[in-house]
Amino acid sequence: MPKSSEQKRAASRWRSVRVGAMVSLVVALPQTAVSGEGGTAHVIPGSQATIVDNAPTTPGPFVKPMYLHYNGSASAQIPTAAGLAGDLDASVNTFALAGGYTFETTVLGGAHYTVVAALPYSWMNLMANVQRGPGAVRVNSKVDGFGDLTVIPAMLAWTSGEWQFNALLPIYAPTGSYEQGRLGNPGLNYWTFDPIVGVVYSNKKGLNALLHAGYAMNTENSATSYKSGSVLHFDGAVQQILPVGSGFMTLGAEGFYFQQVTCDSGSGAVLGCFKGRTAGIGPVLGYVQPLGKQSLSFELKWLPELDTKNRLDGDYIWLKMVYKF
Questions:
Q1: Do 35 and 41 touch, CB atoms closer than 8 A?
Q2: What is the pLDDT of residues 7-42, one digit of tens each?
Q3: What are the residues facing 321 on neighbouring strands?
């Protein structure tokens, strides 16, 4: 049967939300991730899982401001730029601005090709018992500054019916503020290369399911002679899109699992292998407003860590916005 005018309008709005919300980013954020030196890594839970994080398939530019709040603590000793630190409490607020462009010409058998860059700025408040000779001193470090630059020179998305397949290569460059001997550092002072692959399912009833897997490889921190081990990480989400007003609400949940698979190394790795992990799950709430050929998307999520080892243990609160031109 021919579609009614109302059905055609609904289908058009549905296509808008599917393509308008799909803008991906992996962003460098300081001192709040899994394993390695400082109990940290460049890759952050929640940065690559939900609809607003998916690889874009429509040509044109986009901007993506993001805010992350993290509170965490660790009772065991953790190697930091200030030395071994125990009973560590950390509070971090980070604002990151990302931008990218999806090219009209496809590559490699029809893949949509996007480039992305992002720069974070963080405000950090850390307290810990830092080892000083035979004893320990309670140190409070309040630091703010730019974090490490993230560049994604290649983000690819292939579509086939209700399925989308993604491949991307985030690169984290050591451009952020870093000082040896300082407990808190917005930058990590080493490179990370994090190839990621993903699959996305999206049907006409508004059900979306996403799963991404990555393998983050680090270079050595030249200031501390510490090389953090490689991390295998998974981010996944299930979301339902519902028409609300002139746009669409998204309701769902996101889960993550990060596992360090190779040992820390170098002369600075005084605690030996020091493999870490984290896992958690939490709710996600979003809204997508189609604006003709443009779209504006918002997303709020809370991701508590439920299982950790050799790292800070806390909660991630994300607020993201995407404007697709």
A1: yes
A2: 444 444 444 444 434 444 455 444 444 446 766 789
A3: 298
